[in-house]
Every structure is written in structure tokens, then in C-alpha cells.
Amino acid sequence: MFAFTVGLISFIYEGLKGFFLPVIISYFISLLLFQFVYLRKDVVDKRSYLFVFFGVIVYMISEAVMVIKTFKTDLPFQELIIMLFYGAGLYLIVHGMIIEKKVQEPNLFEPVSDLKD
Q1: Angle (nearest 5°) at CA 49 between 39 and 94
Q2: What one-character-per-residue DSSP string does 48-113 give?
Q3: Which of the two ends of the chain, N or C, has the fewest CB atoms closer than 10 A to its terminal CB?
Q4: Cβ atoms of residues 52 and 39 within 8 Å
């Protein structure tokens, strides 16, 4: 995801002018979001994790199209792509959070009762 962000910033760098710092801050926040999603991997069930993971990726594609449209050039069907991916990304994120189930890890410090006999 970092490589995707660096590639996107280098692609639109010429058009940023005075907006370089706000765009960099925005994308570092997006990278932080991606990192938080990845850290959920062993804490929640796989289904919830995958919904949120793909939701964030779809949301970041929407952000990328918006940035290209704003600072570089127009794309075909850009409004449709932006809104479709934005809505789908948020839906997947919220749905994944709603169906979330915590994964129970065994407590290694708890005595095992089967060994007493």
C-alpha cells in the first residue's frame, strides 16, 4: 500500500503545487487506516477481517481516482467510479465491523484441568 501511495503521489506531483502537504497528510492517514485494518488479522474472525480489508482497499481506490481527477486529469466515468467505490468501500467496512466476532486465544497461564487425573 505504501508503494501504491508513493506511485500515486509521484504521478500527480506536478499538479499538487501548494496542496502537497495536505495530500501527504491525507494519504498518511489512509496508510494508518490500512495498518489498523491489518492489525485486526488475528484478533477477529476471518470473514469480518476480509470484509473490512477489502472495504479499505476499495475506499482507497476511490480516493486515488478523486486525487487523479482533482490534480492531474479527467478520467472516463470518474464520478461514477468515485461514488460507487466510495459507497462500496464504506458498506464493506461497516458490514465487516457489524459481523465481527472476537477470536478466543487459549490462555497459556491457565492450568489445564485434564492433567490432574
Answers
A1: 110
A2: HHHHHHHHHHHHHHHHHHHHHHHHT---TTHHHHHHHHHHHHHHHHHHHHHT--BPPPP-TTSPPG
A3: C
A4: no
Amino acid identity, residue 111?
P
Q: How many CB atoms lie within 10 A of CB 40?
A: 17
Query: From CA 51, how far away is CA 39, in angstroms rounded?
Result: 14
- Alpha carbons 116 and 89: distance in angstroms, whole number: 51
Cα atoms found within 13 Å of the Cα of residue 94, Cβ hemisphere only: 6
Which three three-digit cell numbers place residue 19?
496542496
Q: Which three cell numbers stand for residue 12?
A: 500527480
Where is 21: in which H helix or E strand?
A: helix 20-39
The one-letter amino acid code at 100 reads E
Q: Is the pTM of this model over 0.85?
A: no
Beta bridge partners of 102: 44
pLDDT digits (tens, 9 = 90+) for 43-102: 999 999 999 999 999 999 999 999 999 999 999 999 999 999 999 999 999 999 999 988
